[in-house]
Amino acid sequence: MVIHGPNLQLLGSRERHIYGDVTIKVINRELQTAARVCGIGLKIVQSNHEGKIVDLIGAASSSFQGILINPAAYTHTSVAIRDALAACTIPAVEVHLSNIYKREDFRKVSLTAPACVGQISGFGMESYLLGLRALVKLMSGN
Ligand code: DQA
Fold first, then answer.
1. Sign (positive/negative) of CA torsion 75, 31, 29, 13?
2. Are strands 92-96 and 118-121 parallel, antiparallel or unpaired?
3. Which end of the chain is more exposed for a tag (fewer CB within 10 A), N or C?
4. Residues 85-122 pLDDT 10s
5. Ligand 1 mean position, distance from CA 26 (Å)
6. Using CA positions, which residue lies closest to atom 1 of ligand 1?
């Protein structure tokens, strides 16, 4: 399952000097193409709501084998999403379009990354594709 956090529906028009021109539609299309090549299915969800994301993570292990998540602003604020990821029995990989360690101080802390297997940050859309690749490897036990 792929989870896009808050404001990522605005990609393509939002702070383009930071996030570039790519839209969420294009990211999702590229992810679906990559998933097909790997022979896996993907459910992709975007939500602006912390509780909805907590619910999705909480229910994920009954239907999915892994989580690819860009928690967006909740990365830096959400103990609830961190706890949901920590409780989850399937692996999660965190991704960010921008390099959060090169930005404002408040973005340099990820509350959620320690509850994930790893984090990929700073490669634009490629962060998602690299994250998917890493997740597929984990799911296949390699
Ligand atoms: C982001 C980085 C976050 O700090 C920010 O709040 C976002 C996007 C990224 O993908 O670079 O919304 O997660």
1. positive
2. parallel
3. C
4. 999 999 999 999 999 999 999 999 999 999 999 999 99
5. 17
6. 72
